[in-house]
Amino acid sequence: MSKGGGLASMTFDDGPDGLWTARVLDALLASEARATFFVTGPLAREHPALVERMRDEGHEVALHCSRHVRHTGLGEEEIEADAVSGLGDLRALGLSARRWRPPWGIVTGSTRRVARRLGLEISLWNADTHDWRGDPAERMLAAVSPSLKDGSVVLMHDGLGPGARRTGCHQTVALVPALADRLRDLGCEPVPMSELARRGSCAEVAP
Ligand SMILES: [Zn+2]
């Protein structure tokens, strides 16, 4: 545990992935760190045991999407249908998500209205590892470190979403313990975003 009294969140998008999510969960467990997973509804249905593990190991399960499509390319009804479908997938697994990170973090006026109607909190990030590029973990840690502080929300991916330039998530798995150590060095305990939000200090919605 960190002694500094600060909090930060590691967050993972685009899973659950049949190969990589379990390794990310193993790395979190070994680091005694808890995180938030923004999952894709159909993948959650495909890998219920991974979602169960997330919940059982103290992580927060939140909604990413059903189809990984930019909201700028969808009508409001389509955005709402996509979110409702993803929430339904999670409900079928006994989960009620309250947090939503739309694909690519793209938020439109329609996204905001849908979020209000569905009682979802739009949850972005303020520190980006760009792990989808496939950079080595040490390089990602060096690049993201200057932006880490109390209240940081760090973006990572436990799956290979559209646009990923890597063939696997090895480097993300390797980054987890190093990042947990770095956050604790800064006095910040890695916790799910719901715990940051309860404290009221995280930049959850980009301006
Ligand atoms: Zn994504």
From TrEMBL:
What positions does the domain NodB homology occupy?
A: 6-187
Q: Which UniProt keywords apply?
A: Carbohydrate metabolism, Glycosidase, Hydrolase, Metal-binding, Polysaccharide degradation, Xylan degradation
Q: Which GO terms describe its molecular function?
A: hydrolase activity, acting on carbon-nitrogen (but not peptide) bonds; hydrolase activity, acting on glycosyl bonds; metal ion binding
User: Enzyme group, top EC level?
Assistant: hydrolase
Matching entries from InterPro entries are given as: Glyco_hydro/deAcase_b/a-brl (IPR011330), NODB_dom (IPR002509), Polysacc_deacetylase_ArnD (IPR050248)
What the entry lists under CDD domains is as follows:
CE4_NodB_like_6s_7s
Tree of life domain: Bacteria
Its transmembrane ranges are: none
Enzyme Commission identifier(s): 3.-.-.-
UniProt entry tagged with the keyword Hydrolase: yes
Q: Tell me the GO BP annotations in alphabetical order.
A: xylan catabolic process
| Gene Ontology CC: one annotated term | membrane
* PANTHER family hit by this protein: CHITIN DEACETYLASE 1-RELATED, GLYCOSYL TRANSFERASE-RELATED
Q: By what name is this protein known?
A: Polysaccharide deacetylase family protein
Question: Whose protein is this, by species?
Answer: Rubrobacter radiotolerans
